[in-house]
Amino acid sequence: MRILITNDDGINAPGLRALEEIAATLAGPGGEVWTVAPAFEQSGVAHCISYSHPTMVARLEERRYATEGSPADCVLAAVGDIMADASPDLVLSGVNRGNNSGENAMYSGTIGGAMEAALQGLPAIALSQYLGPRTSGLADPFEGARRHGAAVIRRLLDHGDWTSDADFRLFYNINFPPVPAASVRGTRVVPQGRRQGTKFGVVPYTAPNGRRFMWAAGGAQDAPARPGTDVAVNMDGFISVTPMRADLTCHASLRDMASLFDDDTHEAAIP
């Protein structure tokens, strides 16, 4: 198997080293693992691409490259240039330092990399490690992902839904819970949730020169969410697996609103 890995924490991130081990296990002795990752941290860039300026790509060693762009840029660089002779069989993005459950998924560069791979027609999975009090004292906070990652991905590869309709291909978002590897209770396939009573915001800051800046800040990561969603099962010690695709349409509303403009006569706008 030929596997491409990327992330949003940067080429030197410990989570990427964990993903390299997972990918090597999956690829097997005759397989290949290619790394194309951002030169610097790109957390929170979502599915951003460097559309208005060029992106430098540097070869660090065999099958290992760094770009000045986002995770989506990395996938584009791999598919369109670095691995153009033969596309990867699988794209893995992560392992992110911190969860991408709930509303975090909308901001995640880790998920953005997997989404771009899916848009390129490739099987793709995003992986993130939830952190918390029970992982803070571990020698390896990524041990849950290291120990369970390959088995979960194998199950998805063998039995998951990899169908691709006329528009958008499925990809998967995996979050490992904030507990030691031995305390993981299992795996659940669940929808994306949202933490209640918390949201992203800003922390304003005035520099010594008087100029105004801000830091973006997330809300409490242990805030409750609807039962049976990714956030809820992660907090209960389960690995979450969420099928996703790059389609933001609310299909339920489409059905409800289908007749809303049936009698629209396109009258001239009121001056």
Beta-strand proportion: 15-25%
The coarse silhouette is globular
* Quaternary organization: single chain
Q: Which topology does CATH recognise?
A: Stationary-phase Survival Protein Sure Homolog, Chain: A
Cα Rg: 20 Å
What does the largest sheet look like?
9 strands, mixed
- Distance from N terminus to C terminus (CA atoms, Å) equals 63 Å
Task: Give the helices and strands, then pairings.
Elements: E1 2-6, H1 14-27, E2 32-38, E3 57-61, E4 64-67, H2 71-82, E5 90-97, H3 109-119, E6 124-129, H4 133-136, H5 143-159, E7 171-176, E8 186-189, E9 201-206, E10 212-217, H6 230-235, E11 238-244, H7 251-256
Helix pairs in contact: 1-5, 2-3
Keywords: Cytoplasm, Hydrolase, Metal-binding, Nucleotide-binding
EC number: 3.1.3.5
Enzyme class: hydrolase
Gist of the model:
The protein has 271 residues and is of the alpha/beta class. It has a single domain (2-196, 224-256), classed as Survival protein SurE-like phosphatase/nucleotidase (Stationary-phase Survival Protein Sure Homolog, Chain: A, 3-Layer(aba) Sandwich), CATH 3.40.1210.10.
